[in-house]
Design goal:
binds heme C, Cytochrome Bc1 Complex, Chain D, domain 2, mainly alpha, 109 residues
Length: 109
């Protein structure tokens, strides 16, 4: 039979793992990775889509910029940056879109 102390340690480790999983998507960069944004974007360089720094530079000082970008993320974006459209990001909810938009705006160089 397993000693009680070993069981407790196991429970603690399980809790720690759960906590780590729940916290994994809370930061902008982690969320962007988890939602596959980085397949088309990078912070500094243009890939398929514009770099997040250039997005921040364009909208950074506009009132309501975060809401505007959150809408672009949720609904998609066409012809603001070039010929390639961004499809609506259906795996992102409103809260996540806000968080991503605020993170992107914080990257203004
Ligand atoms: C399939 C490639 C692709 C993926 C995946 C993608 N994007 Fe984009 N994104 C683009 C392209 C292309 C544009 C430029 C669209 C345009 O010209 O209007 C863009 C534009 C943007 C803009 C600027 C919108 C505006 O109003 O000017 C933001 C912000 C953005 N993406 C954030 C994200 C975030 C956050 C994610 C992940 C949830 C994401 N993108 C996933 C390709 C992508």
């Amino acid at each position: 039979m397993m000693p009680v102390r070993t069981l407790r340690l196991g429970a603690l480790l399980a809790l720690a793992a759960l906590h780590a999983a729940a916290g994994a998507q809370t930061t902008g960069p982690d969320l962007a990775k988890a939602k596959n944004c980085m397949a088309c974007h990078s912070v500094e360089a243009k890939l398929v889509g514009p770099s997040y720094q250039s997005v921040a530079q364009r909208y950074g000082s506009e009132a309501g910029a975060a809401d505007k970008l959150a809408t672009s993320i949720r609904k998609g974006s066409v012809r603001k940056w070039g010929a390639i459209p961004m499809p609506a990001q259906n795996a992102v909810n409103d809260d996540e879109a806000q968080k991503l938009a605020q993170w992107i705006l914080s990257l203004k160089p």
